[in-house]
């Protein structure tokens, strides 16, 4: 089977590489020529554990190819996947211009019966627009070539995307024709041999499933953050509350950790897009509007704690920040809480020294002028009036607290992820502030 994947971003690159690993002939397309050259050389432009080795192996085997030309790569393909970005528009809706443009180019280049798959996260009803875009180009060419449009949303977690793809919880396929169903089931057969389910549905339901899944997870996070803030005011401990409710099988323990808000490429954008879809249908998504509002507020919790302790004017104060990426095991800075926190500190006159194990190169152009990026976590604490734990990378879990305290001007720790023990921190001589504790 031959597969063409358009877009070598996070989703397209992981998808193409993992499918090549089970024997599919995969051609990945991107308009960024420099990026394609790096990929051809075996360089992975994103940080994702395990992806670099998988990519190099399949390049060497000749199963994975990279090109800037869809016109040259598409002929002979059985499946074409659209995995380009759907950035958030000014009104919160998903911008489909890149998806539609690729669909038109597929219509211009396809030479045989084809299954066209939308892998990008797209609003409900996009499958009809993709169908129309392809059909219009075929009409311009004066040819009739059968094709099917399928919705096949991804459910990959950054930092565990390769494992998620190779051992999926479920595979969702939205289609209308039996031929499309047959080809998609054949494509994913290697991943369901151990009982992982393929869930068949119509395209609109598949498109909605992706948004609903991310919105539910975002809702759990904002709910726990709201409860955490109330716990703090009323003398309760959110960690104990989390254990208490997480043991209920109807609730479960995942995504109920309090913190400083969610970020990344999916949750913020998809929640806003779903809110916008509701507005377009005249149906306010009141729960999700609250979820989004709580998350925006939560990103300011640490900076507000700092203002409460040191005052609104932070001139002459220095703060160490551990972690910049929106979560561990990724260099993704999209909607990262660290950006909001650091910007507020700098605006108040503070100096900031920051460290992240992998995200500093991506973060550097996004940070305010004057922020110093250090070589390691300890260096960031030099002369600091406060230490902020923002991203819970493993290397931050057991630091040399005696050396940290010696480095700092004031022994104050603001734990944005609740990974430290309050009693231990107090015994070590630190003023310790966390979320909901």
Report on this structure.
The chain is of the alpha/beta class. About 45% of the residues lie in helices and about 15% in strands. It is built from 18 helices and 14 strands. The strands form three sheets. The protein has a six-stranded parallel beta sheet with strand order 3-2-1-4-5-6, sandwiched between helices. The protein has a six-stranded parallel beta sheet with strand order 11-10-9-12-13-14. The protein has a two-stranded parallel sheet with strand order 7-8. The termini are far apart.
Distance between the termini: 55 Å
Q: Determine the CATH topology of the largest domain.
A: Rossmann fold
Unreliable spans are none
Going across the biggest sheet, name each strand in turn.
Answer: 3-2-1-4-5-6
- In round numbers, the mean pLDDT is 95
The largest β sheet comes out as:
6 strands, parallel
Helical proportion, percent range? 40-55%
Number of helices: 18
- C-alpha-based Rg, rounded: 24 Å
Strand content: 5-15%
**Structural class by helix and strand composition:** alpha/beta
The CATH architecture of the largest domain can be given as 3-Layer(aba) Sandwich
Total DSSP E strands? 14
In one word, what is the shape?
Answer: elongated
> CATH first level of the largest domain: which class?
Alpha Beta
CATH superfamily of the largest domain: NAD(P)-binding Rossmann-like Domain
Overall number of domains: 3
């Amino acid at each position: 089977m031959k597969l063409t994947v358009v877009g070598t971003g996070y989703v397209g690159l992981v998808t193409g590489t993992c499918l090549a690993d089970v024997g599919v002939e995969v051609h990945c397309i991107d308009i960024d020529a420099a990026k394609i050259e790096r990929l051809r050389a075996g360089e992975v432009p994103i940080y994702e554990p395990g992806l670099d080795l998988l990519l190099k192996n399949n390049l060497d085997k000749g199963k994975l190819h990279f090109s800037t030309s869809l016109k040259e790569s598409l002929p002979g393909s059985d499946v074409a996947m659209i995995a380009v970005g759907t950035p958030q528009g000014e009104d919160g809706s998903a911008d489909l211009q890149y998806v539609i443009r690729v669909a038109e180019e597929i219509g211009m280049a396809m030479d045989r019966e084809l299954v066209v798959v939308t892998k990008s996260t797209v609003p409900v009803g996009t499958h009809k627009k993709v169908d129309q875009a392809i059909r219009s180009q075929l009409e311009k060419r004066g040819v009739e070539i059968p094709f099917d449009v399928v919705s096949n949303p991804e459910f990959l977690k950054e930092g565990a995307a390769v494992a998620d793809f190779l051992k999926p919880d479920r595979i969702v396929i939205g289609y209308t024709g039996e031929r499309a169903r047959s080809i998609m089931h054949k494509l994913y057969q290697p991943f369901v041999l151990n009982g992982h389910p393929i869930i068949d549905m119509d395209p609109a339901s598949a498109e909605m499933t992706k948004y609903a899944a991310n919105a539910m997870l975002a809702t759990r996070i904002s709910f726990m953050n709201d409860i955490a803030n109330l716990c703090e005011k009323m003398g309760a401990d959110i960690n104990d509350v989390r254990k208490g409710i997480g043991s209920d099988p109807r609730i479960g323990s995942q995504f109920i950790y309090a913190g400083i808000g969610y970020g990344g490429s999916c949750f913020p954008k998809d929640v806003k897009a779903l809110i916008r879809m509701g507005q377009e249908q005249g149906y306010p998504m009141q729960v999700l509007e609250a979820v989004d509002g709580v998350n925006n507020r939560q990103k300011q919790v640490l900076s507000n704690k700092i203002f409460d302790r040191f005052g609104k004017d932070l001139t002459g104060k220095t703060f160490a920040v551990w972690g910049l990426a929106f979560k561990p095991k990724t260099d993704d800075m999209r909607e990262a809480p660290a950006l909001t926190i650091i910007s507020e500190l700098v605006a108040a006159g503070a100096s900031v020294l920051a460290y992240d194990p992998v995200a500093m190169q991506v973060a550097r152009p996004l940070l305010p002028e004057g922020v110093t990026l250090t070589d390691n976590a300890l260096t960031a604490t030099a002369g600091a009036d406060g230490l902020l734990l923002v991203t819970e990378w493993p290397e931050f879990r057991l630091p040399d607290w005696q050396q940290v305290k010696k480095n700092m001007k004031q022994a104050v720790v603001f734990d944005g992820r609740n990974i430290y023990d309050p009693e231990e921190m107090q015994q070590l001589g630190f003023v310790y502030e966390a979320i909901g504790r």
